[in-house]
Amino acid sequence: MTSLLATNAYAGxxxxxxxxxxxxxxxxxxxxxxxxxxxxxxxxxxxINSYKGLQNRVNRCKNSIGVPWSQKQINxxxxxxxxxxxxxxxx
Length: 91
What we know:
By secondary structure, the chain is mostly helical. The chain contains five helices and no strands. It has one domain. The chain is globular and about 30 Å long. The protein starts with 13 loop residues before the first helix and ends in a 5-residue tail after the last helix. 18% of the residues are buried.
């Protein structure tokens, strides 16, 4: 799990991203996905198909729930989700 949460100079802080995600996203995802919040990321018909799509979705969700995340925190959540679930290549 440590390697999953590792960061590099170009990425956000995945550990902080997980903390933010768990504090602000799980409740809604759990209700949407019938008790299994992670299945929103692993389902066959998932809506996120690119790194840009992931960035857009995190920003939409942030605005939807009204969390006052900084750009760094947004990048942290994106990094966590990409490392944990999506594995998109990006620059």
